[in-house]
Amino acid sequence: QVNLVESGGGLAQAGGALRLSCLAPGGIASIYTMGWFRQAPGKEREFVARITTTGSLTYYDNSVKGRFTISMDNAKSMVFLQMTSLKPEDTAMYYCAAQGAMPRWDYWGQGTQVTVSP
Question: In angstroms, what CA-CA distances link 103 with 33, 50, 99?
Answer without folding.
Answer: 9, 12, 6
